[in-house]
Structures are given as C-alpha cells and as structure tokens.
Amino acid sequence: MEAAILAGLSYPVPLIAFEYLPASLDNARACVERLTALGNYRFNRIEGEDHAFVHGQWLDDAGMLADLDGTRDSGQSGDVYARLDGRKTSTAAPGKAPASDIAP
What digits encode the pLDDT tens for the residues 2-60? Predict the structure, then answer.
C-alpha cells in the first residue's frame, strides 16, 4: 500500500517513513526506488517497536536495499525512514527538530 501512495508523489518531501515486512519486501523496495527517483534520499530503519535506528550512519538507496534483503530471514518487521539529503533550511515548527537534525 505504501508504494502505491508514494507513486502519487510528484515532488520530494523532507522526511517520510514506511513499514517493511520481511515476508513482503517488494513493497519496501518499491518505496526506496520511488523516493530515490524523486530526490537524493538517505535511509535508516528501526526494528519492531524499538525507538533507535539500526545504523549509526544513514544509508544510500543501494545500502538500504541490501540491508532490507538481509532482514528476509529474521522475520522482524519495522519502519524505514527516508530523509532528503542536502536540506539547507529548516521548515520545522517551533520546538521541533528539523528532519536534517535527527540523530542517527
């Protein structure tokens, strides 16, 4: 479902997240590919209900696709976060961190 929604985007958004399921990685792969077609995104993910990113560094699309392939046998679902790389200005509401300042 997420891939169908992202297919409707006509321009990149600063930060977005989508769910991945190891048994159905085609949807997550399509999401990564769509976002990459829209802009220069970097990716990270969380597993299950954790509140910490798996990686200390944000990955490019090829890195995230390889990482997702590695989840196939784990059975652990989670969320992929994608942030537009190279943002120079903040559009965050007062008191909120802009997407570019989210720590890995």
Answer: 899 999 999 999 999 999 999 899 999 999 999 999 999 999 999 998 899 999 999 99
CB 46 within 8 Å of CB 52: yes
Give the range of the structural domain holding residue 24, as residue numbers without chain letter.
16-86
Give the Cα separation of 78 and 94 in Å (integer): 29
pTM above 0.70, yes or no: yes
The residue among 24, 20, 8, 21 whose CA lies nearest residue 81 is 20
Residues 6+ apart with CB under 8 A from 43: 32, 58, 59, 60, 61, 63, 64, 80, 81, 82, 83
Report how many domains make up the chain. 1
